[in-house]
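Project standup — Tuesday

K.O.: blocked on the structure for the chain from last sprint. Re-posting the sequence here as requested.
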Amino acid sequence: MSDNKPQNSNEISLNGATVPFYEYNIEGVEYIQFDTSKSGHPEPMINAMTGLQNLKPGQKLVMINSKPPAGLFPKIEADFSYEVEQLGEALYKIVFSSKNDAAASTNFADTACNG
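H.V.: unblocked you, prediction finished:
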């Protein structure tokens, strides 16, 4: 498990999280970040769902992981958009944002890994 703290961030407590979460602000945008790049399944899915469920309007969720969470994307795409950036070999940054017109259909209890 990794607990790399982003610069100028504060650790926050999220119910159900299995890794540390951090909150920070860049140019007026609030971010919540967690790192599951060294975690085994199902921790990346559990923490992604926990983070997404706790996003406040306007916040973005940043996930650092060893690969893009392909099993997560179909579960959340009705309510969230995402951008994937490769940071290095076996290291990815995924930034999630709420869709303004989302119908809130995501089942946050669905943490099964399917991809």
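K.O.: great, moving the ticket to review. The chain is about 15% helix and 35% strand. Residues 10-98 form a domain with the Translation Initiation Factor IF3 fold (CATH 3.30.110.40).
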